[in-house]
């Protein structure tokens, strides 16, 4: 018998006018296909698809991540949404309480780069352990801070939790890529972001309920203590679960793109070189800025929401929390819908641009109706704003991974989040000062201007979907290999000499 005919992966989808970046991806996919020992023809030098598998455990991993992300993000807003109550308890001004939220943004900026490096070197499990340990420690420090003269202690606890956030925000796209198939990565990423958003939603809703605005300081301390103990108990449970359950990665990769990434030797990876390549990627640079503008606006709205509502609706602390809840719940629905839509259509740029423009429209309507005197109107407009503004979060993550493949998902997500924190601090401080001087309408118009700039810039992002191209090239190569084998079998049959007719008996 003759050898099977195989089409080399390197020749399967080569196109003369392919860009240099695509050629590099193509070579990476082709050169790293591992031979299987049970196929002798592949051991002779012919490449083949690597084995892949989806494990049921992947849903446990992403849900556990979402849970500890929820616990951490809850604490981001738990001070700001009852700003006036903590001002009274600790005898500090509004700007000081605003920093209890902004510290989350500030700590992220310098530490994201070493944390991303650690993620690339040590993997998901180490990052998950550090995140949950820091978050747990921060919650117990807060438990010890429930006295009016211990604001420094409660700030230390919040600082510890803000460090934990650095180990959390860049994880959704990495978990999605490492554990999930190509048809479900956007949905998985949305679920990862979903936990963060749900935590913020609970942070808007629960503190005003657990900590009512009472004048008796001992009673107020009791209510604050209950909130801190509940948070510490949940954080401790999640830390134990991560220690026992969280796994680094599946035994077999979920996609060919992930299989290729595994074959790159660690010594061939340079974190600095990866950062420099990303900063030379023009579409990704535009996305960094536009993502930062959108999410920075969301951070400012979330941090200052209590002040906005109380100014127009005095004594409505609980409803301020409910409005914040409405913003985030609507955003969670938007995130899941967008994630499912992306998995079905792969229309990354079109979806991102549409959602961005609608976030701008939502912000304009919210700003125009906030002072009408009808809380039910504010609930509706805030929900519409949240659906698009926070629904944008997983879109940005997944679009970034597409634009930057095969670079590390943690690195691209880290740069996006770093931009969001920078703009979040700038917008929160600036809008707060504008509100103090000119009112809430002027502060919200300030955000609308930057959302308009972001929407225009999004229109200029080139939709270079590298991860999708990589997966399609490997599939095309496999189909070419199968057709080549069929052709070879046909050729072997056709080359057999014809059997001469039998001679008649003499």
Average pLDDT taken over every residue: 80
Helix content: over 70%
- Tell me, what's the shape? globular
Cα separation of the termini: 36 Å
| Most strands sheet | none
Beta-strand proportion: under 5%
Output the number of helix runs.
20
Structural class: mainly alpha
Count of beta strands: 0
Q: Which regions contain 5 or more consecutive residues with pLDDT less than 50?
A: 1-47, 502-506
Radius of gyration: 27 Å
Topology:
Layout lengths: L19 H12 L8 H4 L13 H21 L5 H8 L3 H29 L1 H20 L7 H16 L4 H9 L5 H26 L6 H29 L10 H8 L7 H9 L2 H31 L4 H29 L2 H22 L5 H15 L2 H13 L4 H30 L1 H19 L7 H29 L12
Helix pairs in contact: 1-20, 3-6, 3-7, 3-8, 3-9, 3-10, 4-5, 5-6, 5-7, 5-18, 6-7, 6-10, 8-9, 9-14, 9-17, 13-14, 13-17, 13-18, 13-19, 14-16, 14-17, 15-16, 15-17, 15-19, 17-18, 18-19
Features:
506 residues; mainly alpha; 20 helices; globular; disordered N terminus; disordered C terminus
What does this structure look like?
This protein is mainly alpha-helical and 506 residues long. Helices cover 75% and strands 0% of the residues. It has 20 helices and no strands. Helix 4 crosses helix 5 (94-122) and helix 8 (171-179) crosses helix 9 (185-210). The longest helix is centred in the middle third of the chain and has 31 residues, at 282-312. It is globular.
In short:
This protein has helices at 20-31, 40-43, 57-77, 83-90, 94-122, 124-143, 151-166, 171-179, 185-210, 217-245, 256-263, 271-279, 282-312, 317-345, 348-369, 375-389, 392-404, 409-438, 440-458, 466-494. It has 506 residues and is mostly helical.
């Amino acid at each position: 018998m003759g050898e099977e005919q195989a089409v080399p992966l390197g020749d399967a989808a080569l196109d003369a006018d392919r860009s240099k970046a695509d050629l590099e991806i193509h070579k990476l996919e082709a050169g790293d296909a591992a031979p299987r020992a049970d196929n002798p023809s592949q051991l002779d030098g012919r490449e083949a698809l690597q084995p892949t598998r989806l494990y049921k455990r992947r849903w446990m991993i992403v849900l556990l991540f979402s849970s500890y992300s929820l616990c951490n993000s809850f604490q981001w807003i738990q001070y700001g949404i009852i700003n006036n109550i903590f001002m009274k308890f600790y005898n500090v001004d509004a700007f000081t309480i605003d920093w209890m939220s902004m510290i989350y943004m500030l700590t992220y900026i310098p530490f994201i780069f070493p944390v991303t490096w650690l993620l690339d070197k040590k993997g998901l499990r180490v990052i998950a352990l550090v995140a949950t340990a820091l978050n747990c420690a921060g919650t117990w420090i807060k438990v010890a801070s429930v006295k009016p003269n211990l604001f420094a202690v409660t700030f230390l606890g919040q600082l510890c939790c803000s460090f934990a956030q650095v180990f959390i925000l860049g994880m959704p796209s990495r978990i999605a890529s490492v554990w999930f198939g190509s048809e479900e990565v956007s949905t998985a990423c949305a679920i990862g972001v979903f936990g963060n958003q749900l935590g913020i939603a609970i942070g808007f809703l629960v503190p005003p309920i657990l900590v009512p605005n009472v004048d008796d300081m001992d009673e107020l301390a009791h209510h604050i203590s209950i909130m801190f103990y509940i948070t510490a108990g949940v954080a401790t449970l999640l830390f134990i679960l991560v220690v026992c359950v969280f796994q680094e990665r599946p035994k077999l990769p979920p996609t060919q793109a992930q299989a290729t990434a595994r074959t790159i030797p660690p010594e061939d990876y340079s974190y600095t070189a990866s950062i420099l390549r990303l900063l030379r990627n023009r579409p990704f640079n535009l996305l960094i800025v536009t993502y930062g503008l959108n999410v920075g606006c969301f951070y400012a709205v979330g941090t200052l929401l209590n002040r906005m509502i109380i100014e127009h609706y005095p004594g409505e602390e609980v409803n301020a929390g409910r409005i914040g809840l409405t913003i985030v719940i609507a955003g969670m629905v938007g995130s899941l819908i967008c994630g499912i839509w992306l998995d079905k259509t792969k229309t990354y740029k079109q979806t991102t641009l549409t959602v961005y423009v609608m976030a701008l429209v939502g912000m304009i309507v919210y700003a125009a109706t906030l002072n009408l005197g009808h809380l039910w109107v504010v609930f509706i407009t805030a929900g519409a704003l949240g659906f698009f503004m926070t629904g944008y979060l997983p879109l940005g993550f997944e679009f970034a991974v597409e634009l930057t493949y095969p670079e590390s998902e943690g690195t691209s997500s880290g740069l996006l989040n770093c931009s969001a924190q920078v703009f979040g601090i700038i917008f929160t401080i600036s809008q707060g000062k504008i509100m103090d001087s000119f009112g809430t309408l002027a502060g919200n118009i300030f955000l609308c201007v930057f959302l308009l700039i972001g929407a225009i810039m999004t229109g200029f992002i080139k939709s270079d979907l590298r991860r999708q191209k990589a997966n399609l090239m490997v599939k095309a190569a496999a189909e070419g290999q199968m057709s080549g084998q069929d052709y070879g079998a046909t050729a072997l049959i056709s080359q057999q000499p014809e059997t001469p007719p039998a001679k008649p008996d003499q």
